[in-house]
Amino acid sequence: MKNGATNVMIGGEAGQGLVTVGEILTKSLGRSGYSVVVIQDYQSRVRGGHNTYSIRVSNKEDIFAPQESIDILVALNEETLDLHRGQLGSKAVIIADEKFAVVGKGALGVPFSQLSEAQFSNVAALGVASAVLGLAEETVAGVVSDYFGKKHPEAVEKNRQTLSKAYGWAATSKIRFQKLRPAATVRKTLVINGNDAIALGAISAGLKFYSFYPMTPSTSIGNNLAAASKKMGLVVEQAEDEIAAINMAIGASFAGVPSMVGTSGGGFALMVEGISVAAMTETPVVVVVGQRPAPATGLPTRTEQADLEFVLHAGHGEFPRAIFSPGSIGECFHLTRKAFQLAQKYQGPMFVLTDQYLGDSYQTTEPFDIEKLSAVKPWDENAPSTLPYKRFAFTQTGVSPRLIPGLTGHLVVADSDEHTEDGHITEDLSIRKKMVEKRLRKMEGIISEVIPPEMIGDDAPNTLLVTWGSAKGAVVEAAMSLRSPRRKVGVLHFSQVWPFVPEQFMPRMKNAKNVVCVEGNAFGQFARLIRRETGFHIKKKVLRYDGLPITPEYVLSELRQ
User: Fold this and answer.
1) Which of 197, 303, 507, 538 sits between 20 and 30 A of 254, alpha carbons compared?
2) How far is Cα 477 from Cα 481, in angstroms, rounded to an integer?
3) Is 265:294 a contact under the CB 8 Å cutoff?
4) For the whole model, what pTM was predicted?
5) CATH says 191-365 is which class?
6) What is the pLDDT of residues 277-315, one digit of tens each?
7) What is the topology classification, in CATH, of domain 6-187?
8) Could you give the percent of the chain with pLDDT greater than 70?
9) Residues 4, 35 contacting (CB under 8 angstroms)
10) Band of the pLDDT at 14, cuts 50, 70, 90?
11) What is the CATH number of domain 454-560?
C-alpha cells in the first residue's frame, strides 16, 4: 500500500468479464465514500490477449494517479499470476481459482466451481475481492442490480446469488489482509472516466451534432453521446471515415448547430485538410484528439502524449487555435466547455488533447454544478441588418458578425478559397493580405482568455516539476513524496498548452533552482515548445513512451537516476 491507498488489479483475457467486475467494484467503492483511480490496460483484440483493470482506492481524497505495485491481485486466468507476480507487494493477497498454481502466504485458492456456474465465476471473484476489502454486501449487490437490471434483468438474481455465496465463502476463509478503513466522509461523488466527462461537457455547452469514425481511445465519446441523443436532442453520426466526419461537423456548424468530432492521431491525420477549411471559412468546430502510441497504428490501446506538435501545426497555412490538455476528470468537463466557447466566439477550430489513460480512467469526482452553466450561441444576434451582409467583414478584433443561412433574409456566402468581405472568391492580393491579418487578429482575443498554468505545492521551490495533460496526478503525488522540511517541491501544470502567455509562468520557472519537465513522449515536445516560445531550456526531463501511463513510482525512479 502506498500512502494508505490499496491497489487492486483484476487480470484475465478479453471476454472473461473483467471489465464488468472492475466497473461494479469501482462503483461500489465510490458509493461507499472512497476515492478511486482506475487504469485499464487492454490489447487490441475482441477476445483473448492479456488485459487488466486496476483500481487504486483510498479512504481520503489524496490519490490522483495509478499505482504500479499490487496489493490485491484477482487472477481470472493463470497467465495473470505469471505476468504480475513481480509487482506484488510484501503483504499482497492473490485471489484465484484453486485449480491454478496459487502459492504464497497471501494466496487464496477459491473453489469457483462450487460457488457458481462457469459463466458467473467473474461475479464470484468480485464477491471475494469485495469481502477482502471489507465492502458491505448490500452495497455491492445494489450496484450489481443497477448494472444488469436494465439490459439483463433475468441475470440479476443469479448474479446476486453468486455474490452472496462468494461473501459466505470469504467469511470462512483465513484472509490475512487489512480491510479498508471507513471513508473519512461519505460524500456524493460521480465515478466516471475522462471520455464520459468530455461528452457531458460538450452537451452542457450546447452540442447538437457529433460525427466520428470509431478509433480507440475516443470511440466511447460517440457511444456516450449516441446513448443520450434522443433525450438531449443530439444528432450523432458514425461516418464512413474521418474525412467525412470532419466535413460533416463543419457543414453542421455552418448550418448553425454547435458541432464536435472525436478521433485519435491516425484519424486526425485524415482530418487536417478539413481543419484548414474550418479556419478559412471561420466555422466553429471542436476536435477531441485522444492520443495513443504511434507512428502508424502503433499500440492502439495504450497511452502516450506524442501528438502535441502534430495538433499544434495541423492544417496547412496560418490561423489561430487553442489547445486544451485536461489533467483530471473535472478538467475534461470544463475544458471541453471552454473549447466550445472559444470556437463560437472566435469562429474557428479549437482542440481538446487527451489520451487513452485519461479517456479510459475512472475517477471519483465532485458532481458538476450545471445550474449556472449556459450553452453557446451559434450566431450573432446583433449582426447588422443592412445589405449587403458581409460574412467576413474586417473588424478590429478579427471576429466578423455571423449569421446562419436561412434564418434571416440575408445571403450568407462562404468559400474555401481566399475571399472578399462578402464571401466571394478573390485573387486581389491586397485583400488577401488584409484577410490573413483579420484572421490572425483573433489570436489576441484567444490569448486574453488563456488559462494560466496551475501552481501546486511550494512557492520558490528547490525542484519545480513542469507537466501537462494527464500526467498531472502522478506528478503531484511524486512531488508530495519528495517534499520535506528541507526540500521545497512545486508542480506547474498546464491544462492549456497553446497559446502561451510567458508572463504567467516564466517568473516561477526562473526562480526555481531545479526545473524538470515530465511528459509522455520521447522528444520532450512540451519542453521543446517552451524553449521555442520563451528561450528557457529545460535540460532535465522525465519521459515515458512505453505505452504505459506515468505513475508516481515512475517519476520518482527516474528522478533518482
Assistant:
1) 197
2) 6
3) yes
4) 0.95
5) alpha beta
6) 999 999 999 999 999 999 999 999 999 999 999 999 999
7) Pyruvate-ferredoxin Oxidoreductase; domain 3 (3.40.920)
8) 98
9) no
10) confident
11) 3.40.50.920
